[in-house]
């Protein structure tokens, strides 16, 4: 050991080795410190990246939930299909229109689903149950603009279709009304002369002569024709109404009594449901009774073997007429209405009955229109029909309920209006 320390060369070599080791250790320490700092920096960057990714995932999930909410809130039915035409997603509106859940629709081909319901991709109106839809198809593109499937859109155009029908009906009825009025006036004048001469003939003939019976039949036929012409003129003349508050229960009970002669002919179970929110109706009572009687008679005649007759009265959402309104519905469990006849239900002289004149529903439409209301018809062949009258129902400020008083009346009743109100049950054959 002593020799090692005393040898100058060895000592220098050992010192050099220590010096190199010290320098290497120092370099290693610096590298370790730099590496530690870099690791800490990378940890910070990774934490920031994780936070950003976490926020992005939260935002994406919120966006997905929001988009799902928007998709489910759409009144338009949306069906997403892939490149092969297989359904991958559908919203609630599409499920309701197609009558199947999203799970039931998935993995099925959209052409088969539509064909099974008698539908096809077309802009023309198509019926699904009580709804009218138009079906269109648009390409679904990804972020790069490439096609990744199709969107099948089922647009519910029921209300638009109904409005178009109403406009067409009004134009048609206006033209027919003008023609009917002219014909009725031309017929009524000579008819009065026939009635006069028949009465004179009855007076001059002996009561036991067969010819007097013929004269009586002529007079009776003339009166029936005059009644028909009176209904024609009532339909043609713009209906002027005096509306006031009337008890709902009494008005509907009176209507049922007026239709008792028809109800008694078949076994009918009558169910009445009047909401406590609608104790009164704002209407012309005589003419609204005529509307209800016509609808009741139609409903009973649609059930020749008996059935259930439902009469309901309830509040209606504000958006239906744009103001406070009520819905009066007469429902039957009868044979239903052929879809081909729906657009002509309210046309004068249109009837599917052997003894009907085709004026009942035409007058009903005129009266409801004069009340600033509307009439909706829902029917399924073999299951029954529901005719709904939607009428304005003004509210009295303060308590939000209707009140009866003379001040509620719109104006005084004229003689012409009073006679118009007495036309209820003027002729049974006018109902259809």
Word description of this protein:
With 432 residues, the chain is α+β, with helices and mostly antiparallel strands. It has 4 domains: 42-73; 74-156, PAS domain (Beta-Lactamase, 2-Layer Sandwich); 161-236, Helix Hairpins; 244-430, Heat Shock Protein 90, CATH 3.30.565.10. The protein has helices at residues 2-6, 8-73, 92-98, 102-105, 110-116, 158-204, 210-236, 248-258, 260-263, 285-301, 360-370, 415-421, and strands at 77-81, 87-90, 122-128, 131-141, 147-156, 244-247, 268-274, 280-283, 307-316, 325-332, 374-380, 384-392. The strands form 3 sheets. Strands 2-1-5-4-3 form a 5-stranded antiparallel sheet. A 5-stranded mixed sheet has the order 7-9-10-12-11. A two-stranded antiparallel sheet has the order 6-8. Strand 4 and strand 5 (147-156) form a beta hairpin.
Describe the secondary structure blueprint for this structure.
Elements: H1 2-6, H2 8-73, E1 77-81, E2 87-90, H3 92-98, H4 102-105, H5 110-116, E3 122-128, E4 131-141, E5 147-156, H6 158-204, H7 210-236, E6 244-247, H8 248-258, H9 260-263, E7 268-274, E8 280-283, H10 285-301, E9 307-316, E10 325-332, H11 360-370, E11 374-380, E12 384-392, H12 415-421
Parallel strand pairs: 7-9
Antiparallel strand pairs: 1-2, 1-5, 3-4, 4-5, 6-8, 9-10, 10-12, 11-12
* Beta-strand percentage range: 15-25%
- End-to-end separation in angstroms reads 134 Å
Order of the strands making up the biggest sheet:
2-1-5-4-3
Radius of gyration: 41 Å
Q: Which outline best applies? A: rod-shaped
How many strands, what sense, and barrel or not for the largest sheet? Answer: 5 strands, antiparallel
CATH topology of the largest domain: Heat Shock Protein 90
Helix amount, in percent? 40-55%
Number of helical elements? 12
Number of strands: 12
Q: Mean of the pLDDT scores?
A: 80
CATH class of the largest domain: Alpha Beta
What is the N-to-C succession of helices and strands? HHEEHHHEEEHHEHHEEHEEHEEH
Give the tally of structural domains. Answer: 4
Sheet/helix structural class:
alpha+beta
In CATH terms, what is the architecture of the largest domain?
2-Layer Sandwich
Q: In terms of per-residue confidence, which ranges show pLDDT below 50 for 5 or more consecutive residues?
A: 396-432
CATH H level of the largest domain: which superfamily?
Histidine kinase-like ATPase, C-terminal domain
